[in-house]
Amino acid sequence: MSQKFKSLKNDKETKLQDILQVALKMFARYGYKKTTIEDIAQEMGMTKSNIYFYVANKKDLYEKTVGNELIQWRDTIGREVEQVEDIVEKFRIMVSRAFEYLFSHKDLHTIVVNDPGIFTLSRDQDRFLEINLGAMQVIRMVLQQGVSQGRFYPVDIDVTTDLLFSIYIMFLIKTSVASEIQSVSRMVEAGTELILRGLCAP
User: pTM (2 decimals)?
Assistant: First the structure.
């Protein structure tokens, strides 16, 4: 691959990221229906036709925008978990920071509230399945470490990962109701300790 081609590819990826950041704010502020490609193009100082160089249509732009945020969310939690040595504390950080991240990123949370279908328990209906499989891998890694260290009971890793991710998704769905945020925070904290009591070997 020539240096010029690499540079062009990097420029396109950088521009796409800029578009996605503007789209995030617009979708959060006006919602999916009221946001137009023209709005985003104007905010970017681009023409509508230039936007279509990066995305196929508004739906594609929306899903790229949400997917990009979900990837950043997943990867941020993954990095933070890796930095923790103690496996029990690693589990706590994995859970607590996942929710803290959502609540602290207002534009993403607004989009989640407006589009609760972003999260689903059905893999057939999951628009972001590949990203969520990556998130499940973070859970799987923590469980594997805990079992191999003898700190967790020798549970079935795959089944337990599916169980914990399903619980996680149910809590995320609940956060789409603004009035439920405080109760979700309390339940997540209590649920984490309850799960750890079942996981941790004596």
Answer: 0.89
Q: Is 130 left (phi over 0), alpha (psi -120 to 50) or beta?
A: alpha
What is the tens place of the pLDDT at every residue in 17-75?
999 999 999 999 999 999 999 999 999 999 999 999 999 999 999 999 999 999 999 99
Side chain identity at 162, as an amino acid letter?
A: D
Residue 195, CA atoms < 13 Å, CB-side half-sphere = 20
b/e code 23-47 from CB counts within 10 Å (16+ = b): bbbbbbeeebeebebebbbeebebe
Q: Which of 70, 65, 24 is nearest to 43 (CA)?
A: 24
Q: Does domain 66-199 have CATH number 1.10.357.10?
A: yes
Three-state DSSP class for residue 104: helix
User: Of 108-122, 133-147, 166-180, which gets the smallest average pLDDT?
Assistant: 166-180
SS3 105: coil
Q: Does the 1-55 domain belong in CATH 1.10.10.60?
A: yes
117: enclosing H helix or E strand: none
